[in-house]
Write a structure and sequence with these properties.
- The complex is a heterodimer.
- Chain A is built from eight helices and 16 strands.
- By secondary structure, chain A is of the alpha+beta class.
- Chain B is mainly beta.
- In chain B, strand 2, helix 1 and strand 3 (45-49) form a beta-alpha-beta unit.
- The longest helix of chain B is centred in the C-terminal third of the chain and has 13 residues, at 201-213.
- Chain B has one domain: Pectate Lyase C-like.
- The chains are: A alpha+beta, B mainly beta.
- Chain A: GO terms for molecular function: transferase activity.
- Chain A: Keywords: Glutamine amidotransferase, Transferase.
């Protein structure tokens, strides 16, 4: 089944509330997908810095790990641990060196996301509990997406949890199942876009990364996926400044959207949206099949 | 259970509205109370507040009562309804009035997919749009949608009427048996074995009756509608039609 939520703020005054709003939405969707959960939040940018979200086993000493990365980073590495994850901020031009140093020093640590603004957290467990462990309710930002997973296409592991991030500041959550993901995976690998897990949803994320890497906008990349991705899907996608929604042509999976002067919100069900401010007066509608919806702050 | 009675100041006698607040009562509380009602009940007026998108609100009623729901509901609201009038002052999720047997379900806003699915009787009125698969496998229900319907509406429809004042999406009436479809706006495409049919006087009279029942008497001209129904070429397997199945 899976549950998806997304929130894109138009009113900057709501930024401090982003995490608490998203957390509530995610909690309501627990019963659509109780086996794992994850979310990505677009927070503050630090000039010239790239944020890497790392995931390690319980009890990982991220502060010590950050120390070992200082040579590769060319200076002190700021680290912000949250349960099994930590965000390190490094000079953007040292990404390759830091990733290499990390792989050498701690091969069991995964980089689950990288971005100037995006931070990404995911774990197995009840979604409301996952949100609580990472203190989602305290996070601030301009937009974010979240997912509660009922595993169908791959195992219940943290690797199988959403969101999937395959490019800088890009992430995707998916409800559904893709039938041609192996074909697309092979095509992407030939193009030099690696897909790390067995999960079909990661293929969709990588596909969008590939399209955007070719110069497509988020909207154009979503448009292209209607042609190339076969199966059932509702996608909610985040980029550094944008937020997109797409349903497959037969609208197999549910979706509800709400828009006010202050935000655009997405939920698999209306229940996820009921605590948003001003929802009583929001424009609430069901996104049409095969129609690309996206919002961009930069536009 | 949090059910309280709210006396209406109309007559000193019997008219009482039962108010159920889903902020404190559960949907099970609500449905249990509604299921306990007999056909001759005097407790005919019910009001539900704070539904907050919950599923299965006012499902399985079998009594001539009226239930007014203030707000948006989730899946299957008014499902399996018999005799009751269910009014939703908001949007409805997937499967509103699914398998309705009789009575009247009225959604003031939009409805999601599979509205009125498998309905055997009764009347479903949607003031806004209905999404995909409206009236899928309908078996006698009358559905009136003031807005538009999505793709695959009236798929495998067997009996009843679907009246759409707006447009219909792709594959209207795919594999239809005998239901009558009246559409005022455009139809993106017709499904397998569904064709446009002549609007004879009997059809205009039927359409007029359905529109009147929807409170639209005199507001809409029946001659603006086209009728669609089964070409009846797929009733029995015939190898020449194999690509249409």
């Amino acid at each position: 089944m899976c549950g998806i939520v997304g929130l894109f703020l138009k009113d900057e005054a709501l930024a401090p509330e982003l995490g608490s709003m998203l957390s509530t939405m995610l909690g309501v969707m627990c019963d659509r997908g109780p086996d794992s959960a994850g979310f990505a939040v677009y927070g503050n940018r630090q000039d010239g810095r790239l944020k890497l979200t790392l995931r390690g086993p319980e009890g990982t000493d991220f502060a010590a790990l950050a120390k070992t990365l200082e040579v590769a980073a060319g200076g002190p590495v700021a680290v912000a641990p949250r349960a099994t994850h930590a965000v390190i901020a490094i000079p953007a031009d040292r990404e390759e060196a830091v990733r290499a140093a990390l792989a050498a020093a701690a091969p069991h640590i995964a980089v689950v996301g990288a971005g100037t603004r995006m931070e990404l957290y995911k774990e197995v467990g009840l979604p409301s509990e996952v949100a609580r462990r990472f203190h989602l309710e305290t996070m601030t930002g301009s937009h974010g997406i979240g997912h509660t997973r009922m595993a169908t296409e791959s195992a219940v592991t943290t690797d199988g949890a959403h969101p999937f991030s395959t490019g800088i500041d890009q992430c995707l959550v998916h409800n559904g199942s893709l039938s041609n993901h192996r074909t697309i995976r092979r095509r992407l690998e030939k193009e030099g876009i690696p897909v790390a897990t067995d999960n079909d949803s990661e293929v969709a994320a990588a596909y969008l990364t590939y399209r955007m890497g070719e110069g497509a906008s988020l909207g154009q990349a979503l448009e292209a996926s209607l042609k190339d991705l076969d199966g059932f899907y509702t996608f909610v996608v985040g980029t550094e400044s944008g937020f997109g929604v797409l349903r497959d042509p037969i609208a197999c999976k549910p979706a509800v959207m709400a828009e006010t002067d202050r935000y655009v919100a997405f939920g698999s069900e209306y229940r996820a949206l009921v605590d948003l401010p001003g929802i009583e007066d929001a424009k609430v509608w069901e996104p049409e099949p095969a129609k690309v919806y996206f919002w961009d702050r930069a536009a | 259970m949090n059910v309280r009675s709210e006396a209406l100041k109309v007559a000193p006698s019997v008219l009482t509205t039962h108010l159920i607040d889903l902020a404190s009562a559960s949907v099970r509380d609500l449905n249990t109370a509604l299921h306990a009602l007999k056909h001759d009940t005097n407790e005919t007026a019910w009001r539900v507040i704070h539904p907050r998108g919950r599923h299965a609100v006012a499902v399985g009623i079998d009594a001539p009562i009226s239930v007014e729901i203030d707000g948006n509901v989730g899946y299957y609201c008014g499902g399996m309804n018999k005799l009751a009038t269910v009014l939703v002052n908001g949007n409805a999720g997937v499967g509103v009035a699914e398998n309705i047997m009789s009575g009247f379900v009225h959604v003031k806003g939009d409805a999601s997919q599979a509205a009125g699915a498998t309905g055997c009787g009764g009347f479903l009125l949607i003031d806004g749009n209905a999404s995909a698969r409206c009236g899928i496998s309908m078996k006698g229900v009358d559905i009136v949608v003031k807005g538009s319907v999505g793709h695959m509406s009236a798929f495998m429809a067997q009996a009843g009427t679907l009246t759409v004042l707006g447009d219909a999406g792709e594959s209207l009436g795919d594999s239809i048996y005998e239901a009558r479809l009246y559409v005022r706006g455009s139809v993106t495409s017709l499904g397998a074995d569904c064709i446009e049919k002549e609007m004879r006087d009997e059809h205009k009279a039927q359409l007029h009756e359905k529109l009147a029942a929807a409170g639209l008497a005199g507001e809409v001209d029946v001659s603006d509608f086209k009728r669609y129904g089964s070409a009846r070429t797929l009733y029995h397997f015939h190898v020449d039609n194999v690509s249409s199945y």
